[in-house]
Amino acid sequence: MSNISKFKDTFQGGVRPNQFAVEFFRVPVIAAGGLDTSLTAKASSIPASVIGNVDVPYRGRQLKVPGDRTFEDWTVTCFADGNWNMRTTFESWMASIQGHRNIQGTTRNANDVYGAAYVRQLDRNGRVLVTYVMEDVYPTNVAAIDLDWGTNDAVEEFQVTFAVNNWFQSNLVSPSLDGGNLDIGVGISITNNSINWQAAVRGGKTF
């Protein structure tokens, strides 16, 4: 027999997909490093976790063994703000990698093209449940915005697709993480459901 009360206590109302925040804490074209998209990023995703599979044949059977981890592209959908700051920032980031009119950007230090961001899943009271750190990302596509005289009562929005080299989930690492045993360059501490970032040195620079 089902026990709805036990289910209620375990489910606790569930987690809502509209309770989230996205913020970039390192963007190469911004001197201060950070870009607060918590109010303009209207949609994103928690990244998929994918480990490849290798089939090894043995006497007519296939033994499955774990392969390499792969990181899928990550997409953020942003509102076009009144000052055009969001889109300009991402377009400038891409232009710093590869210019529109010449080869500007192709001689940049390879490490200078990467940024970093985090996606925070919030509970229904706005408290942080978990943080996903998107490390060493760069934009590969700032999508088109359709313009139409017949479109009324709508706000422009656009998608930005990022290539991802690494991500990790805050609940899977120690609260005293110093970055020493992972290929990351940022430390975090978790206190009262809030995330505190600790600057770390990577590639000769602090962020």
Description of the molecule:
The protein is mainly beta. Helices cover 10% and strands 42% of the residues. The chain has a seven-stranded antiparallel sheet. Strands 4-5 form a two-stranded antiparallel sheet. A two-stranded antiparallel sheet has the order 10-11. The termini are far apart.
In terms of topology, how is this protein built?
Elements: H1 4-11, E1 20-26, E2 35-36, E3 41-43, E4 50-58, E5 61-70, E6 74-79, H2 85-97, E7 115-122, E8 128-142, E9 157-169, E10 187-191, E11 194-198, E12 201-202, E13 205-206
Antiparallel strand pairs: 1-2, 1-7, 3-6, 4-5, 6-9, 7-8, 8-9, 10-11, 12-13
H-E string = HEEEEEEHEEEEEEE
The profile of the biggest β sheet is: 7 strands, antiparallel
Shape: globular
Mean pLDDT: 82
- Strands of the biggest beta sheet: in what spatial order? 2-1-7-8-9-6-3
How much helicity do the residues have? Answer: 10-25%
CATH class of one domain: Mainly Beta
Q: Report the sheet-strand fraction.
A: 35-45%
CA-based gyration radius: 21 Å
CATH topology descriptor of one domain: Elongation Factor Tu (Ef-tu), domain 3
Q: List the uncertain runs.
A: 174-207
- How many β-strand runs? 13
Distance between the termini: 55 Å
The appropriate CATH architecture of one domain is Beta Barrel
* Content-based structural category: mainly beta
Please give the count of helices.
Answer: 2
